[in-house]
Design brief:
- This protein is α/β, with parallel strands linked by helices and 359 residues long.
- The protein has 2 domains: 118 residues, Aspartate Aminotransferase, domain 1, CATH 3.90.1150; 227 residues, Type I PLP-dependent aspartate aminotransferase-like (Major domain) (Aspartate Aminotransferase, domain 2).
- The protein is 44% helix and 16% strand.
- Strands 2-8-7-6-5-3-4 form a 7-stranded mixed sheet, sandwiched between helices. Strands 9-10-13-12 form a 4-stranded antiparallel sheet. It has a two-stranded parallel sheet with strand order 1-11.
- Helix 8 links the parallel strand 5 and strand 6.
- The radius of gyration is 21 Å and the shape is globular.
- The two termini are 34 Å apart.
């Protein structure tokens, strides 16, 4: 049995799950799709059109378009902004997903130039932006900043950064893969946050647990151009309806639950305050996700996680993320239905075991 099969076996035997909405099972995902779903044809009509209309309204934009992946969506919309402004420069945080996880696709496919601003371990500030003299096409901001444990600037800082870009004739694009969580953290509607930006991308498989897929929302003319890029990049599949139907179902089920997820995330952080060797980042959580820094090694973490799965039937993480210190590991806790099925005290006790400090 290889490692992947072994981990799948362990997870299948668990009855409690620490992260998100629990295990991703094909039967559960397919059950989200109503049997009377109206199918589309190459992205036109049916439930795809219904989703696009609902997303435009939810995000307060004139139009929206469904795409199969965030990589395609964001590269397409950045290309549109760059072509319109005859500039190739995109300013973003050093940990921007396009820059760190997409094999430089924005550069190699679209000829765009990335300009990181600020430091990897903190949010962009207006001072970081004010140091940039070159003309730019787009300022890309991620809300919340996933690699910083879900941190986001206060609304006044966010508005100042948007104004800085607009004063230079640049577009402002929101990487809102976790906009649902961000809006809960700000205590605002998704439309209020999206309204600060020219274009916004949202994901459906992350916070709300749908099948893969996403939307870009913007003015009608921008969306028309993004549709053309979707076709050029192979995203106009014969049928997009299963993923669109899943997105609609999960939005209607879980979007209203985001404030509750945030409340539970903060309760978990509070419960962890008394656990030695565990630090919460940020503390308190700003959205329904947080990072935990554990004073343990990779091997000890993996052994503790396996013990929890085998003896307590609790699934946590198959492994931790490394840090610059071999004796400190990092994990990301996205709070969802499965997390909320456990009390804050139960989550804290489980994390204590992972840190080698069982009660």
């Amino acid at each position: 049995m290889d490692q992947a099969e072994d981990l799948a076996r362990l997870e299948a035997g668990c009855t409690s799950f620490l992260r998100g909405h629990g295990p991703v099972r094909a039967a559960d995902l397919l059950a989200q799709i109503p049997q009377d779903t109206a199918v589309d044809s190459y992205g036109d009509g049916g439930v795809v059109a219904e989703l696009e209309s609902e997303m435009a309204g939810l995000l307060g934009k004139p139009a929206a378009v469904f795409l199969p992946s965030g990589t395609m969506a964001q590269q397409s919309v950045l290309r549109v902004h760059a072509d319109r402004r005859q500039s190739r420069t995109v300013v973003f945080h050093p940990m921007c997903h396009l820059h760190t996880r997409e094999e430089q696709g924005y550069q190699r496919l679209h000829g765009l130039t990335g300009r990181p601003a600020g430091d990897p371990d903190r949010l962009i500030t207006i001072a970081d932006l004010q140091r940039i003299a070159e003309p730019l096409a787009v300022l890309l901001l991620e809300l919340p900043q996933r690699d910083l444990g879900g941190q986001q600037p206060d609304l006044a800082d966010l508005a100042a950064q948007v104004a800085w870009a607009r004063d230079r004739g640049a577009a402002v694009h929101l990487d809102g893969a976790r906009l649902w969580e961000s809006a809960a953290g700000y205590g605002r509607t998704p439309a209020e946050i999206a309204g600060l930006f020219d274009t916004v991308y949202v994901s459906f498989y992350k916070g709300i647990g749908a099948l893969p897929g996403c939307c870009v929302a913007a003015e009608q003319d921008v969306i028309a151009l993004v549709r053309e890029w979707r076709k050029r990049m192979g995203g106009t599949l014969y049928g997009l309806w299963p993923n669109a139907a899943s997105a609609l179902a999960c939005l209607r089920k879980r979007l209203r639950l985001m404030p509750g997820y945030l409340t539970h995330a903060r309760a978990i952080a509070e419960a962890l305050h008394g656990v030695p060797g565990v630090r919460v980042l940020p503390d308190p959580p700003q959205v329904p996700m947080l990072h935990l820094l554990l004073d343990t090694t990779q091997d000890d973490f993996a052994k503790a996680a396996r013990m929890l799965a085998e003896s307590r039937r609790v699934w946590t993480w198959p492994k931790a993320m490394t840090t610059g210190d071999p004796s400190v590991q990092r994990v990301e806790l996205s709070v969802g239905d499965a997390t909320c099925a456990l009390s804050a005290a139960e989550v804290a006790e489980t994390v204590a075991v992972l840190a080698g400090r069982p009660g």
